[in-house]
Amino acid sequence: MKRTVFRGGTLFDAVSRTAAPADVAVENGWIVDVGTGLDGDEEVDCAGRGVLPGLIDCHVHLTMTGSDIVESAQQPFSLQFYEGALNMAKTLAAGVTTVRDAAGADLGMRVARERGLIPGPRMQLSLNMLSQTGGHGDPWWPSTCVLDLLPPHPGRPPVIVDGPEEIRRKIRELVRAGADVIKVATSGGVVSSGAGPRIPHFRDDEISMMVTEAGAAGLHVMAHAHGEGAKAAVRNGVRSIEHGHFLDDETLAMMADRGTWLVPTLSAGVGLRQAIEAGVPYPEHIVEKIQAPSDNSVRRAVEAGVRIAMGTDAPLYPHGENLLELELLVEHGLTPADALHAATLSAAELMGLDATLGSLTPGKRADLVVVDGDPLDVHDLGKRVLAVYQDGRAVHVADRDPVS
């Protein structure tokens, strides 16, 4: 069995949130030792370079491309899966070796990656997003036309539900189709056709049913949520709040006390504002929501001790440019080390994968990202990725050969 040593790099320790020189020994796709002076059958020279654990993006939509919802709705149905394969490759090449798909990708995409048919990150799937009638995921528009970016198919069940018993049945359908996590919208959103992000969706008995029924299948619930909708989601036991604007002190205190994660998806706001500047024809009521001043919920969440995990909401900011989120997290109050922790061990813990992912620790999968310079410098980190290794195998990066 071949033993490869990544020698001479500066390793980011996601447990201590520090960086120090060390070698990493890999065998058969797993990390077997970390230290200095390690022996191996072959070496990867990492001198002058940083070595990070494979990064984790907890909020992507791999079958969606671009931010023009009208254009996307006019594309052939099956095009999303071909574009999704390209988006998977871009994401992996960026150093993101694991993702949680927050609606779009189906079981076939995950199996294709697992069988080696297409390159891409490991995937947890939500398949689709539970929404109440008239909620964030309801594709009905006032004109009575239906503009569905995630049209249902056998692998992605329809998800407009009202009342606990409809919710129970729908979660069972999602589990049957291969869901690893249940996603719900407990508030409106920026690109909702109707209600804005301050409007709560679903009653407590409905959200409680989601958490209970998902838990019966061994799954967690992630909630697209803002304001009072986020408070209701936390109160009823969801695992994470996605986006999370307009969070008041009571909500943040509950999140810190209950260990609820916040996945801020700050990149999405940047991407939407850029789309407006580029002339993407959003309706005026959506433009107004996009251009509304950003609140300081992320900074206040950090101060309150809320767990943070990285998520981008790609493609609202493009697939393959995921690492911008690290810079944005720092701008909103995290230290660079804390931002990297959010993209590694904290993200792995959120997804329940920390036994095998999230840190450069013996006994974990050999997912490594080699970067130019200091690994604790997250500025332009995406442009400094030199090589990505998933299960110990090199991934071609940005027209450059892997480090060797």
Sheet of most strands: 8 strands, mixed
Strand content: 15-25%
The tally of strands reads: 17
Helix content: 25-40%
Gyration radius, rounded = 21 Å
> What's the CATH topology label of the largest domain?
TIM Barrel
Kindly provide the name of the CATH class of the largest domain.
Answer: Alpha Beta
Question: Which structural class should the secondary elements be placed in?
Answer: alpha/beta
Question: What are the segments in which pLDDT stays under 50 over at least 5 consecutive residues?
Answer: 400-404
**What CATH architecture of the largest domain do you see?**
Alpha-Beta Barrel
- Annotation field: number of helices: 13
Total tally of structural domains: 2
The averaged pLDDT comes out at 93
Multimeric state of these chains?
Answer: single chain
Shape: globular
Q: Quick one: CATH superfamily of the largest domain?
A: Metal-dependent hydrolases
The first-to-last residue Cα distance is: 19 Å
Could you spell the SSE succession in H and E letters?
EEEEEEHHEHEEHEHEHEHEHHHEHHHEEE
Written description of the protein model:
The chain is α/β, with parallel strands linked by helices and 404 residues long. The protein has two domains: 3-53 and 358-395, Urease, subunit C, domain 1, CATH 2.30.40.10; 55-322, TIM Barrel (Alpha-Beta Barrel), CATH 3.20.20. Helix content is 30%, strand content 21%. The chain has helices at 69-73, 79-93, 107-114, 164-177, 204-216, 227-235, 249-258, 266-277, 284-291, 297-304, 324-331, 336-342, 345-350; strands at 3-13, 18-27, 30-35, 42-45, 49-53, 55-60, 96-101, 122-125, 129-130, 182-185, 221-225, 240-243, 261-263, 307-308, 368-372, 385-390, 393-395. The two termini are 19 Å apart. Mean pLDDT is 93; it is low at 400-404.
